[in-house]
Design brief:
Blueprint lengths: L1 H26 L2 H4 L12 H13 L2 H15 L2 E6 L2 E6 L2 H9 L14 H4 L8 H12 L4 H25 L5 E2 L2 H15 L13 H19 L6 H6 L1 H30 L7 H5 L7 H11 L6 H32 L1 H15 L8 H6 L1 H13 L6 E4 L4 E2 L4 E2 L4 E4 L1 H4 L22 H5 L16 H18 L1 E4 L8 E3 L3 E3 L7 H12 L14 H21 L3 H4 L12 H13 L12 E4 L2
Parallel strand pairs: 2-7
Antiparallel strand pairs: 1-2, 3-11, 4-7, 5-6, 8-11, 9-10
Bound molecules: protoporphyrin IX containing FE.
Keywords: Endoplasmic reticulum, Heme, Iron, Membrane, Metal-binding, Microsome, Monooxygenase, Oxidoreductase, Transmembrane, Transmembrane helix
Membrane topology: Peripheral membrane protein
Subcellular location: Endoplasmic reticulum membrane; Microsome membrane
């Protein structure tokens, strides 16, 4: 049964691939089609294009960033590649990146962002033109420093719950997985600050939302790189697409709930427009959701409930997942570098002494070393590993002219490892960010929050939140992470994720992809959903065949060695047991994933 299916898959995929490539080439203007004649290109002809499209589609997310890094190493900082007819230019030169990002002519996102539309609709991250301009202007006010000050008590409150939960979980020196704790804390913070409503995620109320975000992100990245999933119909019937639509149902329900709670809070306070605590101070700025609901009430032509939902969806996602990854990575790195951790703690002691008071805005500004630690973490592990822009008009780079309709792709993860900007780029050295001389060097060579008109609107908010949470942990606990930095493997998804899987064989991954296309429930990025029985069966068959085969091909005297030399594998069964145990051995410190944290009370 399997073989004819496989033939059909290959046939269908090849047909889709060729038709997409030919069709999209023909409909583009000539200059667009000729881009590869003057920009170093990986896909100078149709065959190369098909090969590249397939290679990229079959890459495991953990191999994507090293793959792109190698492309830059081999071809220079500006590289062209067609993926089934879509033209991409990959940029890794800070000067060229500056030209692109600092111009207000190139603010539209690439076509991949369309894949997020069913989830985030036309929220700030995805919107274009006038709609984006108006929204950005309106919402920028809600990240004013006075507003951030107003959020401080809530951030401190949730940071303390987070630290307590970690310490409770680490009783008896137990190792714990930290990422879920961080994510729930981040979610509580975003809900109570900018949404103005408590969701009690840290009390276990929103675990489903967090899992759905992860599934949705995985499905989207799957779609971005696998050209056969670009088609809406195929995506909808594929396993990846079904996971995506199931997940966004949960995500939308959560957002609706946040909005309803806020509306009922406002109703109960007897004032539809202003929050009770804001009423006390007349000039106090409004928080995000208050402001949107105000506009809805006062100018229903300008804002509908649908508009509010798309912004709440966008800010809930962008506002908690990005910073929770950054906090997880910072805590992991501090646990691996005890000297840096001690230095950060000394700084906190000089600010707070033995007091357990809340961190104020002045305290946060005084945390210069912790600030550098977080910045260095974001250099090595920028939460958003890559982003794109689509050109409306011609772009003149330092050396090349890029025609309209090209998608420009930037990879902060790779840019931040440029040896010319960052000596010893793989090393964790927060001091780089304390040296004033480096500031000009880092401009456009350091873009974890992007740059220019479409940079991250929540940058300052995120830094404050991260400093508050991490300083609270450091003031209460000593962090120890097992493993070493080299063991951290990053998976390129919409946002980065720590790879916590045993290594997948490439062939195994390819087979999973094919099975996935036919809708079996096999999740390729999380072992949890993997068909465990299938894996055990395949491993056993492989083991037995190997043992029989290797015995039979050896001379008899070799096979009888265990009869006179003390042996650990006297029987066939004990040999298999030994093989299995060796295969399952976890070398000390090999998996520095988020499951190997130890927090110690000091
Ligand atoms: C460590 C934390 C964060 C990082 C590394 C980060 C990074 C980024 C990056 C790289 C972009 C540009 C994406 C692109 O061009 O496609 C972006 C945009 C955005 N971020 Fe953040 N972000 C963080 C935290 C936040 C927070 C806390 C919020 C909200 C409270 C937020 C809201 C947004 C929004 C709405 C956009 C779209 C802005 C626009 O297009 O005008 N981010 N962020």
């Amino acid at each position: 049964m399997l073989e004819p299916n496989l033939v059909y898959v290959v046939l269908i995929l090849t047909t889709i691939l060729i038709s997409c490539a030919i069709w999209s080439r023909l409909r583009k203007p000539l200059e667009y089609r000729r881009i590869s004649s003057h920009v170093p290109s990986l896909t100078k002809n149709l065959w190369n294009e098909m090969l590249f499209s397939c290679t990229i589609a079959m890459k495991h997310p953990k191999d994507l960033l090293p793959f792109f890094k190698e492309i830059f190493q081999n071809n220079g900082p500006v590289v062209h590649a067609n993926i089934t007819g879509r033209s991409y230019v990959l940029l890794n030169d800070p000067d060229d990146i500056k030209i692109l990002l600092s111009s207000t002519s190139y603010i539209n996102k690439g076509p991949e962002y369309e894949m997020l539309k069913p989830w985030l609709n036309d929220g700030l991250l995805l919107s274009k033109g006038l709609k984006w301009q108006n929204r950005r202007k309106l919402l920028t006010n809600t990240f004013h420093f006075k507003t951030l000050d107003m959020y401080n008590p809530a951030v401190n409150k949730h940071a303390k719950v987070f630290a307590k939960n970690l310490l409770d979980a680490c009783v008896d020196n137990k190792e714990i997985s930290i990422s879920e704790y961080v994510t729930l804390c981040s979610l509580d913070i975003i809900c109570e600050t900018i949404m103005g409503t408590e969701m009690n995620a840290q009390k276990g109320k929103s675990v489903q939302y967090v899992h759905s975000i992860k599934s949705a992100c995985r499905s989207v990245i799957d779609r971005i790189f696998k050209f056969w999933l670009w088609n809406d119909l195929i995506y909808r019937i594929s396993n990846s697409g079904r996971t995506f639509f199931t997940s966004i149902k949960v995500l939308h329900e959560f957002t609706d709930n946040v909005i309803k709670r806020k509306q009922s809070l406002l109703k109960n306070s007897g004032n539809q427009k202003v929050q009770p605590e804001i009423k006390l101070e007349k000039n106090r700025p409004k928080s995000f959701l208050d402001l949107l609901l105000d506009v809805l009430n006062e100018n229903p032509d300008q804002m509908t409930i649908r508009d509010i939902r798309e912004e709440v969806d966008t800010f809930l996602f962008e506002g908690h997942d990005t910073s929770s990854i950054a906090m997880t990575m910072t805590i992991l790195l501090l646990g691996l570098h005890q000297d840096i951790q001690d230095h950060a703690r000394e700084e906190l002691y000089s600010i707070f002494g033995d007091s357990d008071r809340d961190a104020t805005m002045e305290d946060l500004n005084a945390m210069r070393y912790l600030d550098a630690v977080i910045k260095e973490t974001l250099r090595l592990y920028p939460s958003v590993p890559s982003f794109t822009r689509e050109l409306n008009t011609t772009l003149q780079l330092k050396k090349y002219t890029i025609p309209p309709m090209t998608t420009m792709a930037i990879f902060p993860y790779i840019l931040h490892r440029n040896e010319n900007i960052y000596p010893k780029p793989e090393e964790f050295i927060p001091e780089r960010f304390l040296d004033e001389e480096n500031k000009s060097k880092f401009l456009f060579g350091y873009i974890p929050f992007s740059a220019g008109a479409r940079n991250c609107i929540g940058q300052k908010y995120a830094m404050n939140q991260m400093k508050t949470v991490i300083s609270t942990v450091l003031r209460n606990a000593k962090i120890v992470s097992s493993g070493c930095k080299e063991d951290i493997k990053i998976s390129m998804q919409l946002l980065i994720r720590i790879e916590s899987l045993p290594k997948f064989d490439d062939f195994f991954y390819l087979m999973l992809n094919i099975v996935n296309l036919f809708g079996r429930t096999v999740d390729v990025t999380e072992m949890i959903d993997l068909n465990v029985y299938g894996v055990v069966l395949i491993s056993l068959v492989g083991l037995i065949s190997y043992a029989i085969w290797s015995r039979l091909r050896m001379p008899l005297e070799y096979r009888q060695i265990s009869s006179h030399v003390p042996s650990a594998t006297k029987t066939f069964w004990s040999e298999m047991q030994m093989l299995w145990k060796m295969a399952m051995l976890k070398p000390k410190g090999t998996y520095a994933n988020e499951k190997v944290f130890k927090l110690m009370i000091f």
